[in-house]
């Protein structure tokens, strides 16, 4: 085992010496074929001119139902928040300026909360962790404030 460790340390020293030396190693120049030109991809100007609201669809996989809204039985809290944001934006006449989109996991995974990313052209992006029922008005106030 000691011999193996000594050999590994010797190899590591050799590697460090090779990289720290100012001399170029004597290797043959490698041939790199020319890079073919990249074909253009169609672009467009989006309808949502102010921003984009991304709602994580994986945050609350437990079922969410409102007692007063039996129609919503079977929807998740993420879907409920997304639908609520869409309806509020439409009601306030901001639907063309903003777009609410469901996205897959954003890697934060808060318990009983939803991750929302607000991408606005003027301020960049803001990431929120919200309670789908308790803090949705506060979230909407951020969105509305950016429009003024």
Automatic annotation (TrEMBL):
It comes from the Bacteria. This is (2Fe-2S) ferredoxin domain-containing protein.
